[in-house]
Amino acid sequence: MSCIFCSIVENQIPADKVYEDEYVLAFKDVNPVALIHIVIIPKQCCQHFHNIEDNTLAHLFRAIKIIIQENNLEDRGYRIVNNNGQDGGQTVNHAHFHIIAGEQLGHNLAGH
Ligand code: 5GP
């Protein structure tokens, strides 16, 4: 069965898309932790960051840069997060990055 992010890629469930190209899709997080919370995924399903193919990784980071620029975040700042695996707190097993921004964020990186 297809994972939830694959279902978004395949337009089987709706999402508020903010960026799309051949390799990458980005959409607003359904449960935002800040005023701006965008999820960036490779269209090809891959569970872990360390298994993302290099070319796709380049496209993902390029998309992240574009989204940062489109949201005028260069001056105010932003946070890029990748939760990976069980200890990393990954809840959706389709590798993804978060852009979290739009307000002053805390300093707690451990997230305990
Ligand atoms: P993780 O915890 O795996 O790093 O992040 C998964 C993220 O996906 C969470 O922030 C969660 O709110 C978001 N999410 C889960 N299901 C959906 C969905 O169906 N639509 C959208 N837009 N976001 C989702």
What do you see in this structure?
The structure is a single chain. By secondary structure, the chain is α+β, with helices and mostly antiparallel strands. It has a single domain, classed as 2-Layer Sandwich (HIT family, subunit A). Helix content is 21%, strand content 22%. A 5-stranded antiparallel sheet has the order 1-2-3-5-4, covered by helices on one side. A hairpin with a 7-residue loop joins strand 2 and strand 3. It is globular, with a radius of gyration of 14 Å. The N and C termini lie far apart (32 Å). The model has no long low-confidence stretch (mean pLDDT 96). It binds guanosine-5'-monophosphate (5GP). The site of guanosine-5'-monophosphate has 13 residues, from strand 2.
Kindly identify the CATH topology. Answer: HIT family, subunit A
Main sheet record? 5 strands, antiparallel
Strand content: 15-25%
CATH hierarchy class name: Alpha Beta
Give the beta-strand count.
Answer: 5
> What are the distinct ligands in this entry?
guanosine-5'-monophosphate
Shape verdict: globular
What would CATH call the homologous superfamily?
HIT-like
Share in helix: 10-25%
Amino- and carboxy-terminal Cα gap:
32 Å
Residue stretches low in confidence (pLDDT < 50, at least 5 long) are: none
Structural class: alpha+beta
User: What sequence of helices (H) and strands (E) makes up the elements?
Assistant: HEEEHEE
How many domains make up the coordinates?
Answer: 1
CATH architecture: 2-Layer Sandwich
Radius of gyration: 14 Å
Number of helices: 2
Question: Order of strands across the widest beta sheet?
Answer: 1-2-3-5-4
Mean pLDDT equals 96
